[in-house]
């Protein structure tokens, strides 16, 4: 089931000296056909991220994409499959609701778009009391043009930086990460 509330406010740096909006021009000044593929991408990406299929999720993400959550180290997104498997095993329900999205385009770097996303994740753990845990999140997603016949809607994620309050889910999150992270064995 998809829970998605998408409100897009797009802005690009204002190059005109007559601009009175402190350096930004707003959506009414922008060709909205440029925004629609990003909106379509996001509506496809959210259920792919929340779902169980690695294949569908990887269609949305560049092979060299990275992910960073809170103060954790930056990791290759391609190495997250085990974490997604563990999430599937430990939860009875997991989904995101997108509250607001801001699309930032830089005319000088038209091959990359930054999406600022205010969203929440809702998790119900199998081992818990069946009470959903709602976690506010904020994500900076860098989108780029996908290679020919790859990606979704001609786009894919190049990098993700996610900030979230994990206090309510930290014990289970830490268990998932401990099981999903490869162990380094030292030899003498």
Number of helices: 4
What's the overall geometry?
Answer: globular
User: If you consult CATH, what is the topology?
Assistant: Nuclear Transport Factor 2, Chain: A
CATH top level assignment: Alpha Beta
- The overall pLDDT average reads 77
**Termini separation (Å)?**
51 Å
Helix content: 10-25%
Coarse structural class:
alpha+beta
Report the sheet-strand fraction: 35-45%
- Total number of distinct structural domains: 1
Largest sheet: 8 strands, mixed
Oligomer: single chain
Spell the H/E element sequence: EEHHEEHEEEEH
Signal peptide: 1-16
Keywords: Signal
Task: Write the SSE topology.
Layout lengths: L7 E6 L10 E3 L9 H15 L3 H6 L1 E9 L5 E2 L4 H10 E15 L6 E14 L7 E13 L9 E10 L5 H11 L8
Parallel strand pairs: 1-5, 3-8
Antiparallel strand pairs: 1-2, 3-4, 5-6, 6-7, 7-8
Helix pairs in contact: 3-4
Keywords: Signal
